[in-house]
Amino acid sequence: MLTTKAQTGGNGAGEMRSGTLNAAAFAARLDTVVADMEALLDGLLGAAPLAGERSRPARLLDAMRYASLGGGKRFRPFLAVESAALFGAPRERALMVGAAVELVHCYSLAHDDLPAMDNDDLRRGRPTTHKAFDEATAILAGDALLTLAFDLLARPETHPDAGVRIELVLALARASGLGGMVGGQMIDLAAEGRFAGGEPQRLDRQATETLEAMKTGALLRFSCAGGAILAQADGAARAALDRYGTAIGKAFQVADDLLDAEGDPATVGKATNKDAAAHKATLVSIMGIDGARRALADLVAEAEAALAPFGADGEVLRAAARFVAERSH
Amino acid sequence: MLTTKAQTGGNGAGEMRSGTLNAAAFAARLDTVVADMEALLDGLLGAAPLAGERSRPARLLDAMRYASLGGGKRFRPFLAVESAALFGAPRERALMVGAAVELVHCYSLAHDDLPAMDNDDLRRGRPTTHKAFDEATAILAGDALLTLAFDLLARPETHPDAGVRIELVLALARASGLGGMVGGQMIDLAAEGRFAGGEPQRLDRQATETLEAMKTGALLRFSCAGGAILAQADGAARAALDRYGTAIGKAFQVADDLLDAEGDPATVGKATNKDAAAHKATLVSIMGIDGARRALADLVAEAEAALAPFGADGEVLRAAARFVAERSH
């Protein structure tokens, strides 16, 4: 077993060590991160300018708050917090990493929802940022949220060691940009035949997996890796968490595709059945609903197995993998 | 006089120490940065994925290259390189800082040119990114360029000391985001009355100066500060460079406004007289052409005076201030 906080005197998940975490206990733990994240982002998006800032224009700040507060499962921050907790890293530092990855996630939603992209009017049951404000404001709010993510990681409160902070900056940049999330969105739009002379193309399984590993997987993987970087975990622990992060990233996407194929818009909080309408390749369209359900179960098992080296301390993250699968129902 | 490379055995501007740099010698020096920047960005935007990247989608990479290669005065990288050279910092490190700030500049142009923002079809005499590609691709290319800027600063080749790199990340984030460049663009659009129920409002001189300090000034100031951070310059040297960066930032904007009011679109490479058409407050509209010309001369003198502590070593940056004023003719 790898060295974790249980051996090093840390605390935080001790109550879980004796067995399987039930759904209510898991939900309570997730809710705590939801509340902590709301409070942290609310404070970070205050009106007072910081050193190096001239002023914080009210309309831009309002749009950034709209795009990032008051909603969202905060699943990425949860993964960052629980990954860091495995090693007993201070929770307030893990929340800074969680806030950074959540800001990247929220900026990507504000941009992806734009008319020139996915053209969505509804998100989390509310008007999307460009509907609540306007397109220019949504573009700028996204830009500023992305910039703020790197600002947070660079602050001393994230970690006293600059070497740890810069490793987080580099890892988040790689996960989010050309070769990660933004690249995945580009592949997705191209596959829909959205560009001049383009026809919708049904991607094969491998191409679909690459797209999904970039578009959603990279940021989920970073969330887990970020916790390990923050805690300066050793190579074996990082590798185990990376296997977990990869599996849960894939599981998350399959669950999302199942939700789109089968979910009710009122419950889901956004339009559903859009993938089929766009003739979009997903693992559901490639493997069918039953095949996707089996793949999802395999991915959850893979995620759980990756955490074996952490023993009972891994139970919260194992429960997170089960939670991902359950939200597809 | 502050300690500069002349006393510490550095080199690079020694040939200037004896007097005033003429326009041809200055142009040659600027051209060297233009060529170095083109080569560096070309290499950075190659097709091979780096560690942590899954793949680099061709269309996104093409758009990022289109938005950042083959044009531009590279004035921000020039300021970073020459500021760092004052202290004898290695040129290849200064070019990394210059590349980061140039990528932020290029992303901001790609986003500002969008139909939802300034709706420009022409930039540097070529179609803007969304005209050459499409809106979605221009948005994503901008997002990925911004992300890449922080990626570059986080790399060990920018500086072996993680503390220096993280200071650069934080300073660039503050200059570029909510309280800097993006915030300035928000104020600018709001002043044009672009939002629901908004009327164009003629900003007063102070509000116009705040807008310009954020929209264009912050990134120019960072370019100078970045060179000083990279060189780990002392407080007095940083303060002097910051006074210079502030003055040259203002001068740059006044020159730009004069160019818009008086320039020929064929020479300028983009539409002109747009400010007056948009009833936009600029220092030109507030002070008139002659007043703006006098203010520009004062700012150049201020920039030159700020460099006094560097003695003859400051001549290249003094010439840069004169260059800024001259491009307004």
UniProtKB/TrEMBL annotation, chains A, B:
Keywords: Isoprene biosynthesis, Magnesium, Metal-binding, Transferase. GO terms for molecular function: metal ion binding; prenyltransferase activity. It comes from the Bacteria. PROSITE patterns: POLYPRENYL_SYNTHASE_2. SUPFAM superfamilies: Terpenoid synthases. Coiled coil: none annotated. GO terms for cellular component: cytoplasm. The keyword Magnesium applies. Its cofactor is Mg(2+). InterPro entries: Isoprenoid_synthase_dom_sf (IPR008949), Polyprenyl_synt (IPR000092), Polyprenyl_synt_CS (IPR033749), Prenyl_diphosphate_synthase (IPR053378). GO terms for biological process: terpenoid biosynthetic process. Belongs to the FPP/GGPP synthase family. This is Probable farnesyl diphosphate synthase. It comes from Rhodoplanes serenus.
